[in-house]
Write a structure and sequence with these properties.
This protein is mainly beta. Helix content is 4%, strand content 24%.
């Protein structure tokens, strides 16, 4: 172990010529854990990370870590970080205990990385499922005033999922063993209003529709006279007179 370098001077130390402030603290790894993974755009709002359908990680999102029972609107987080490298985040060397992850309300307001977005439907539990099977953002509420939290993860050394294989998994490069690192705390977000052209008029958003317009969530419309039909142009947009209120999709 090496401390950081300090400059010593005669008569310029806290106790004259003596500096008694150079301390070193140690912890045992068997009481520490890590939690993290992915914040992503959920293009078809199915609660899973599907890169083949256009889902992408979101960089630059503020993510905060709180203990169970804390109010994220008023409490001081234990850790704060920003997503990077394709939407990933990690809180490393955390004391074992009950924790939840929180995306603050500012991210959902004007200029935020998740402006006008909401948590994807459905929210997984502390079940070791990775982003290929679920996401963990709590639904309901108003993100612009409350933000979005995950459920509580009971983190304990030696009991966490191993070999996570979800599409958004990444290699942990820290000091802890795999069974003390939980990389399944994912948060998916969907657009709250986008007009979708139902290209093949099958009444749901599928790969054909998404490949044409890269759409996410909103009003499902058809070019062939079905309810809420409109002028489905090649860009997937309707004329101003054909705009409808936002409705949930039926997903593939």
């Amino acid at each position: 172990m090496v401390t950081k370098a300090i400059t010593l001077s005669v008569g310029g130390e806290p106790a004259g010529d003596h500096n008694p402030t150079l301390d070193a603290g140690f912890v045992t790894f068997d009481t520490l854990v890590a939690i993290g993974n992915l914040v992503f755009y959920d293009v078809n709002a199915n609660g899973r990370f599907d890169p083949s359908l256009g889902d992408t990680g979101v960089d630059g999102v503020a993510v905060k870590l709180f203990q169970q029972g804390q109010n994220p609107l008023t409490a001081t987080p234990a850790r704060t970080t920003l997503t990077s490298g394709g939407g990933f985040y990690l809180f490393d060397l955390v004391p074992q205990g009950n924790w939840f992850v929180y995306v603050p309300k500012e991210e959902f307001g004007a200029g935020g990385h998740l402006a006008a977005m909401a948590s994807s439907p459905g929210n997984g539990g502390d079940n070791a499922y990775d982003d290929n099977l679920d996401e963990n953002g709590q639904d309901g509420g108003t993100p612009t005033t409350q933000g979005v939290s995950t459920h509580v993860f009971a983190l304990a050394s030696g009991t966490e999922p191993t070999g996570e294989v979800g599409a958004g998994a990444h290699d942990y490069q820290g000091l802890l063993p795999d069974d003390s690192v939980n990389l399944t705390a994912d948060l998916g977000f969907m657009d709250t209003c986008t007009t979708i052209c139902d290209v093949n008029s099958n009444g749901r958003v599928d790969v054909t529709d998404l490949n044409l317009i890269g759409a996410r969530r909103g009003t499902l419309v058809s070019p062939r006279g079905r309810p809420n039909s409109g002028d489905c142009n090649r860009d997937g947009l309707l004329s101003i007179n054909d705009q409808r209120a936002c409705l949930p999709f039926k997903t593939p």
